Amino acid sequence: MSVRPDSKISNSTFLLTGFPGLERDYPWLSIPFSCIYVMVLSGNCLVLHVIRTERSLHEPMFYFLAMLALTDLCMGLSTVHTVLGILWGLSREIGLDACIAQTFFVHGLSCVESGVLLAMAFDRFTAICSPLRYTSILTNARISNIGVVILGRSFLFITAPIVRLKFFHYCRPRILSHSFCLHQDLLRLACSDIRFNSFYALALVICTLLLDSVLIFISYILILRSVLTIASQEERLKSLKTCVSHICAVLVFYIPIIGLTMVHRFGKHLSPVVHALMGNIYILFPPLMNPIIYSIKTQQIRNRIQRWFIKQT
Questions:
Q1: Which family does the record assign (predicted)?
Q2: CB-CB contact of 98 with 176 (8 Å)
Q3: What is the pLDDT of residues 226-256, one digit of tens each?
């Protein structure tokens, strides 16, 4: 059954949109989406379990990887109930408070992931450019402080615009564009003064996602410059190989964001299904791919997983 603007919705609820025009295929669509969520949850839990139980992985690089896996795990948990709830035919409605809470976690976790990727870039920069001082620079206390700063920056800064959503007057048809709640989607339905939220959100994106991506890019310029000073070609390749997993994780995170932004900005003529698909890729692609990338590209994790499965068989 398609979502129509004249659908009766109570004043305290919103109607989530799944994949317009594909409602009859929801039972079939629910199968791949269920498998994706299972892979997201099990993959990131496996990475966290391996890092926790393997003493050889108790070093800065893997602490940051554990932060990334935990962030991806929480991102999957924050949207699984609404996405699968629609596809399984359980409910399309979501209350205002629940929608605001989901918005808080979706956007907050995106900022956390961006911050963790920046911290991992700093980790690679330190390991390659100052290998002798690596452990003295990235101590456990300093890593903990970096984690606290990332969490504080991500969740404290978005609190003000998210709280304001509670007091907006929503006079337009309460139909959201995705199968989960987003800040910009709620603003589109509000009839109150949204200028503060709009400008604050833009400034926050510039100061977090954009700034983080620029700093990551600068760190790799410095890494490349340092690697090129190494005389041995074999050593150069060995140093660069340690960065491959992180580079893939950065691309997996930023490419969907850029794609979703381009679709929202220039793809108004595209089918609503494209918008819904890009929204789900933005949410699910990084949590799905990061455990696969690090399990394949990181030898210590790959060997530990192989030994664990061999023992089970």
A1: Belongs to the G-protein coupled receptor 1 family.
A2: no
A3: 888 876 888 888 888 889 999 999 999 999 9
